[in-house]
Design brief:
Blueprint (H helix, E strand, L loop, with lengths): L1 E6 L6 E9 L4 H10 L5 E3 L3 H10 L4 E6 L2 E2 L9 H5 L8 E4 L3 H6 L4 E7 L4 H11 L3 E6 L5 H13 L7 H9 L5 H4 L8 H7 L7 E8 L2 E8 L1
Parallel strand pairs: 1-8, 2-7, 2-8, 3-6, 4-6
Antiparallel strand pairs: 4-5, 7-9, 9-10
Helix pairs in contact: 5-6, 6-7
């Protein structure tokens, strides 16, 4: 298969292949832990206003997200794996708005199959992709300038049979990423070091996170591996 690494919010078209959108710090680490805690599905939306509007249609849904890394007023959670890990979702859906991963996911069309991941579900995602035997895979490092998503993409590329890096290198590049600094310097009580430590955990998932597009509704479901 042909494997391409793209960076930013505008993934290239991949009509016959598989696209994987990566957001290690923190959207798809948060999504992984939400599913671990029993979330039924995740609805990605572009704005806080869209999140509140969808909440009116899904009154039992919870809201998670950030603007400029900080929690959004009126949301149940920030974009925080630690925060969602403290909650039992009891099959409630999650509506998510984030700056990088969610926006890149919403823009990742056309493609035949679409997944989202961080390091936590990297190996499970690679297995799901391999099972589809696509002619082309686009790995999207959604942070336009961040190294942590590129590192995850390079790790997954290696798992798919291309030239890649080790899990240990991907973890270290996440812990040392520029985006991680504000979580370690205690600049804001809602930016926790635990979020980055959780983001650097590699291959702890037994499911991939697949994006479904039905009647213009876009949502994410866990797919056991």
């Amino acid at each position: 298969m042909n494997i391409i690494i793209s960076q930013g919010h505008q993934p290239p078209a991949n009509a016959l292949g598989v696209t994987v959108v990566i957001d290690v710090i923190r959207a798809f680490t948060t999504a992984h832990h939400a599913f671990q805690q029993g979330a039924s599905r995740i609805w990605p939306v572009a704005t806080a206003e869209e999140a509140f509007s969808l909440k009116q249609q899904l009154p039992n849904a919870l809201l998670a997200g950030e603007i400029d890394a900080l929690p959004i007023d009126g949301f149940d959670f920030g974009n925080s794996p630690w925060e969602v890990s403290q909650t039992e979702f009891n099959h409630r859906p999650l509506i998510m708005r984030t700056t990088n991963g969610v926006i890149a996911t919403l823009n990742a069309q056309p493609c035949a199959h679409l997944f989202v991941t961080g390091l936590a579900s990297a190996s499970a995602t690679a297995k799901a992709v391999m099972a589809l035997s696509p002619p082309q895979v686009v790995l999207v490092a959604s942070h336009p300038t961040g190294d942590e998503d590129v590192a995850c993409a390079q790790y997954i590329k290696g798992l798919l049979g291309g030239e890649g890096i080790s899990a240990e290198e991907a973890q270290q590049r996440t812990l040392n990423a520029k985006a991680a600094v504000k979580f370690f310097n205690q600049s804001n009580p809602r930016l926790r070091a635990a979020d980055i430590e959780m983001a650097a955990q590699c291959d702890i998932a037994n499911f991939a996170m697949r994006v479904h597009n039905t009647n213009k509704d876009l949502f994410i479901l866990p797919e056991p591996i």
